[in-house]
Amino acid sequence: MTVTELQPTGPQGTVHVRIGTFRTAYHPDLTCLALNSRPETYRGQEALTEAEAQRRGLTRCRKCSPRPAQPAEEFTHRPLYDVPNDYQQTARPFTVAVAGPARAEGDPVELFVIEEYNSARAWAKVLAWYMVENETPDAIVVGSESFEGAPDKAHGFVHDLRGEYARQEALDDLADQAAEQVDAFRESTADLADHSEAYETALAEAAYSAWPLVLQVAANDGS
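Predicted structure:
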């Protein structure tokens, strides 16, 4: 499973600096000779965001090739994701890795588990949940770290969304049942005068029938 690699741009993009005391520049171009030459003093390099490099008092290397801008038409003629074609008639667990806005600063991906019928639906559902929950559209699925099945303990902390979506589906079902009862009540009382004895009796019976739904809604609060 693969995902198109995005080239970071702007003040949060990744740059590189030589390890050492006497350094004044950061390098957007990893192949810059000023970054890799002088082997007698070269002790390696580190990656950091351009904003952090500037906070350290470093300036952009003038010898680096300019970083190409990402064209607006980058994904017009090809898909962003190469999603597996793995639909089955039985829902099963999928683990989906999502990288949010802090990915340019080196933050790790977050893992989510969801039950769906194929990878495409699982990725879309998790990505939508992430964007709404974090109030940001700046997120991508990392296909190389996403897979069919539930993760083991070696993967560390995982957001398990299966219970949340099961709860939401149960609430949706209760809402449908409530709507059906309202429609049935309105149909049965259409010819009755408001506040008549027959109307009040029908209203009391409808309230009695609806009370179990109220209890189920109250119990299904996610706690």
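Summary: The chain has a mean pLDDT of 79.
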